[in-house]
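Q: I have 171 residues here and want to know how they pack in 3D. Can you give me a structure?
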Amino acid sequence: MLKVFYSDQYINSKTFLFYVFEKYFNLKLNEKDIIINKYGKPYLNNNLYYNISHTANIIVIAVSNNEIGIDAELLTRKISDTLINKYFKNEYENTFDIIKLWTKKESFVKYLGKSMFTEIKNIKIKENLIIYKNEVVNINSFNYTINNIYINIITNESNFEFINLNKKITD
């Protein structure tokens, strides 16, 4: 089970998280239910995993029975030449490729629950493969584009449900 919730309403991440878990999983969460690892990855003290990303005016939350990583980026985001040369050398052809690579790498690092800037150098993307520390990783990567936002999800799941929550949060 993998569900991805999306909203383009301006809303606090925890407010959105608590809303999603209460309305869709019948779980009333509070701050004590969230555990943060040493790299900042949040976990719940139950059998559900989640991950959050936000960019521009959107927020996405992926919820699964398995580890999950998600990243969302504005397609027009400018990534510095320094970062491009350091982490994406010879992996891209255009700006859109850089955003796709960035979101895939970031969502994979979030899946691992590790530090972006220590692990990104260990990740290479070749075609649709993720290579981590010189080993091909057997994992699924889903992407979705909505309102000029590119979203990448890394999971062991084989499919996902995308749920648009615009205008429902205040109902």
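Q: Anything worth noting?
A: The chain has one domain: 2-164. The first strand starts at residue 2 and ends at 7.
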